[in-house]
Amino acid sequence: MEAESSERTNSVPAEPSFLDTPQGRRLAYHRTQGALPGVVYIHGLNSDMNGEKVTSLDSYCRSRGRAFVRFELSGHGRSSGTLRESTVTAWLEDVSAVLESLTEGPQILVGSSIGGWLMFLYTLRNPDKVCGLIGIATAADFTQRVWKGLNKEKKVEVQRSGIYDMPSEYSSDPIPLSMELFSDGEKYTILDMPGIEIIKAPTWLIHGDQDTVVPPDISLQILQKLECPVQLRGIEDGDHRLSRPQDIHILQQALTALLNPESHVEEEDED
């Protein structure tokens, strides 16, 4: 695989670099060289690498000389492909390509929404490449949950057309999800199957109590299955995006705790 590199240390380039994956996809990314372990951010569905959370973490890592990679999954942002043709398998391959080509040694993975699901899936397959995890509103088993929420008539319609236009709280346009995505997602269940209890990397789970996209109970289920050191941080007035300054502060607290395991991170009340 080949990467067009425009590495940076002190400033954000206007244009991303691109990584060509073994599967023929082209992924947009930004990379900062720095101290290890590095941090890799995996964004959520219908999102990109330019949101408030990821850019704040980018700045946080740059200011501390910490290696950081952010990228866009295929079908998102400047990366190749469309959401209609995306699958969980393809996204997991994207994550694997980024970790293999753009990082050195074990990394701390930060995953938002489906990015959190992908980070757990990657860690199960590559435990030696991960030394810490932060899941933000982790959308584990997202495709199964959406499919189960459809009535019989809608399922028949989606099976016939091949596409489910999922309404979005954050856009007037629906999010096109393919029947192939739903079928493919069945292979990647982590909540109802044994598996993630073997993960050893220390983990933080951050979830807004007012999240109407991914129920907070999902993070609780993950907590109950994990046997590694794990912290669950609920944010009483937090929604799905968790992009407010106070939310980002908690995210940075979690990263600080993973980077400095001997330090004590005090929890603050969420008013």
TrEMBL record:
It comes from the Eukaryota. Residues 39-142 form the AB hydrolase-1 domain. This is Palmitoyl-protein thioesterase ABHD10, mitochondrial. PANTHER family: MYCOPHENOLIC ACID ACYL-GLUCURONIDE ESTERASE, MITOCHONDRIAL, PALMITOYL-PROTEIN THIOESTERASE ABHD10, MITOCHONDRIAL. Coiled coil: none annotated. The keyword Chaperone does not apply. Residues 1-23 are annotated as: Disordered. InterPro entries: AB_hydrolase_1, AB_hydrolase_fold, ABHD10_acyl-thioesterase. It is an enzyme of class 3 (hydrolase). Gene3D superfamilies: alpha/beta hydrolase. Acts as an acyl-protein thioesterase that hydrolyzes fatty acids from acylated residues in proteins. Regulates the mitochondrial S-depalmitoylation of the nucleophilic active site residue of peroxiredoxin-5/PRDX5, a key antioxidant protein, therefore modulating mitochondrial antioxidant ability. Also catalyzes the deglucuronidation of mycophenolic acid acyl-glucuronide, an active metabolite of the immunosuppressant drug mycophenolate. It catalyses: mycophenolic acid O-acyl-beta-D-glucuronide + H2O = mycophenolate + D-glucuronate + H(+); S-hexadecanoyl-L-cysteinyl-[protein] + H2O = L-cysteinyl-[protein] + hexadecanoate + H(+). Keywords: Hydrolase, Mitochondrion, Transit peptide. The keyword Glycoprotein does not apply. It comes from Geodia barretti (Barrett's horny sponge).
